[in-house]
Amino acid sequence: MRKTKLAISLYIVFVTALVSVSGLLLLHHNEAAALAAIPVSAVQSQPSTLVANQDGRLEMFIVGSDGLVHHTWQSSPNIWPANPLWATLGAPAGQNFDNMYNSMTVIKNQSNELELFAATASGSLWTISQVAPNGVWGIWVSLGGQGFQQAPLVFTDAEGRLEIFAVNSGSVLYSYQQTGSLAWSSWTSLSNVPFTAASLTGSVNADGRLEIAAISTTGTMWHIYQVSPTTLAWSPWSSLGTPVNADFIGRTAAMALQSDNRLAILAVDTNGFLEILQQGNGAGGWLSWTPLGSVNNGNASTTYRIATTFVSGTGEGVNAFVISSNDEIASVRESNGVWTTVTNNLGFTENGNYNGDLVHAAMNLNGTLDMFVYDNTAGAYMEIHQKDTTLPGGDWENAFLSLGYPS
Q1: Strand, coil or helix: what is 40?
Q2: Alpha carbon 162 to chain centroid, angstroms
Q3: Domain that holds residue 43
Q4: Mean pLDDT throughout 80-93?
Q5: In this structure, which of 16, 92, 278, 308 has its CB flanked by the most CB atoms within 10 Å?
Q6: What dihedral angle (degrees, nearest 10) is formed by the CA atoms of 143, 145, 150, 156?
Q7: What pTM was estimated for this model as a whole?
């Protein structure tokens, strides 16, 4: 199957949208009493469909042209098979998924089982999970709601509970909290600030407080955060502004916790520069937007998407990959709070016609990274493996490996 590339669309992250619409952000909170907190470095900071099983094997999930969820996985930690097997998780009865890249996200839940959350073509939110770590999958369960347009954002909070944020077609921010080990509460509003549907991002502060950022329809970055790690109370929305002589209209953003325990937000501005905003030291609030360099000579008509992943280890930190609609992949890397400038091209062969909507990255059990893109020309998902993490930016294989496409 081939998908025609979107030539003039504006995004960047893991959630994307074709138009800027007012959206409502929703928080879904999963009660799981007496569970220990998940390490913040392991918490999802953006929707992703590439995640590690409890045994270390990476697993990739996509929506096929048939409107069903499909997945493939490593044969053993760090190794993808020469002829990957694609299996299907289907869809809820009477439902289907019509967003090939951006309708779902997968996490490892409190029981170390993979759990998938997805918005159907009708706009409702559903979940399905493994019945045991590394095991087979259960059945689809409805989380209700309506008007969802993009993949939700899922966190584990300081008390070990899942919290889900999602955007629907309205203009009010909602929260949804689980009231028992299996039950989920009604969706509840947090705010009515209008955001673009694609711009949702977030992370967990070093002290365990959740923090969310989103871009308004006027191109300004806003954020909101938990008052304390164990409360359901949230701060008011406040503006984080824009870069000098630019804004983020039509863009998306990526938030991540750096190795120095400060949050950072990445976004490509309307001039094509990758901008970063970092928290100050201690209670110093946020610093100023700083450009890290031009992404493949991009501009306001270029499609962007960012994937971030945290690499543990001495001197290691956040890696971010930016794919643009001119078929190039750029990267930046953080260590101890200091970021590199943009590297355009990663030194490997890039002969594909990549879709600017899709890039995912995750860490293997051995500490190397894997990155995925979709090649429109080949009609296949492509994987490339990092051979060495010791060199600046890592040493990558020379070319992508095709993982095929579910038949």
Answers
A1: helix
A2: 16
A3: 24-404
A4: 91
A5: 16
A6: -40
A7: 0.83
